What we know:
The structure is a homodimer of 187-residue chains.
Chain A: H1 3-8, H2 15-23, E1 26-30, E2 35-37, E3 45-51, E4 53-60, E5 63-71, E6 75-76, H3 79-84, E7 91-94, E8 98-104, H4 105-114, H5 117-142, H6 145-155, H7 157-162, H8 165-172, H9 176-186
The structure holds a DNA duplex (30 and 30 nucleotides).
Amino acid sequence: MDLKNYIKRYVEISDDEYELFTSFLTQKSFKAKEKILDIGNRCHHRFYIKKGCVRFFSYNKGNEQIYHFAIDNWWITDYNSLLNNRPSNIIIETTEPTEVYMLSKQNFELLCLALPKTERLFRIIMERAYIAFQKRLEFLYNLTSEEQYKDFIQDNSEFVQRVPQYMLASYLGVTPEFISKIRSKIE
Amino acid sequence: MDLKNYIKRYVEISDDEYELFTSFLTQKSFKAKEKILDIGNRCHHRFYIKKGCVRFFSYNKGNEQIYHFAIDNWWITDYNSLLNNRPSNIIIETTEPTEVYMLSKQNFELLCLALPKTERLFRIIMERAYIAFQKRLEFLYNLTSEEQYKDFIQDNSEFVQRVPQYMLASYLGVTPEFISKIRSKIE
DNA sequence: CGCGACGTTGATTTGCCTCAACGATTGTGG
DNA sequence: CCACAATCGTTGAGGCAAATCAACGTCGCG
């Protein structure tokens, strides 16, 4: 799937409109383990991942804490930095070679004027992100770490193959040792 | 603060436009401990709390698990039920007498056509909700339950006065006993 | 080949839960 | 207006899930 089909899941868009949309985007390629956004920098863009994988994390008393992964056809940014003009607390870093479209804050506003349905598109994207966040919360509150791990690998098998185990552990809020012990118990 | 000033924080709106906006809303009053939305029902509205307090919760092996509180000047709904037309998994219930504006799914779409900046307003509202969610996640992953409690009562003193301790415990994902023990340790 | 990154395994510790018993407060019916 | 129950909060004993710490195995890469 490409960006056009991604957009079409949420709003109708003609070929001309799509041309207009992409005229506000820039493209960029990253190697594996490159930082797209670093702590202390202001975030100026929304990123659409054409192909690849990134992790969104910070440091908690010396340890990495991963909050999100994002892969092909996801939008990601640090909304707090982008919208409140704050230095970022987090790092967005590729875990594999990754190609993105970048939509700058300024171009986003211009795009909304040029193509008003952009507002609707992003409103819907945010609503879907909210629903995913709510499910994450239910997951965190209601399941033990072991249950979370089992559910996660069940529902996200593609992730499990793409990122190392210690990153999954961090994302799930547990230690790598604990994941290892669950795995040995399973087989 | 009223709804008009709430809206003005995010988009410009004239008196006429505000009239138009409110013409799509209905009002409703609830007593304390009334359900605004129940498990199994489809959610058809976005709710704006004019005055009052509600909790958003479900049951986890017999126990209430509170995910959110919402008070004066917050929008709340079950997005999963509303947008995906699913029976709700959660309950939204008042904790005190509460007045709300209701915006039905259908009226929301009509309002977006009549007043396109509604899209922008709700896009921004959702982005701010996303930021709050992200902070919640950092809170959950990086702090012990004791630290979470202390930070929470520091930053949300108005909540602490409005809802009983066992609801705070549920929201924070701990037992009422544990909160009690922290409190006795503090003074 | 040798080193560093990643994963495994076991012993010990700890944060929070569970269960049970007991105050304090509120509200409701006799 | 009092008695009683129900609800909410407190306190302590014991238990468990997951962390911590340390040692070791393994694999890929310079």
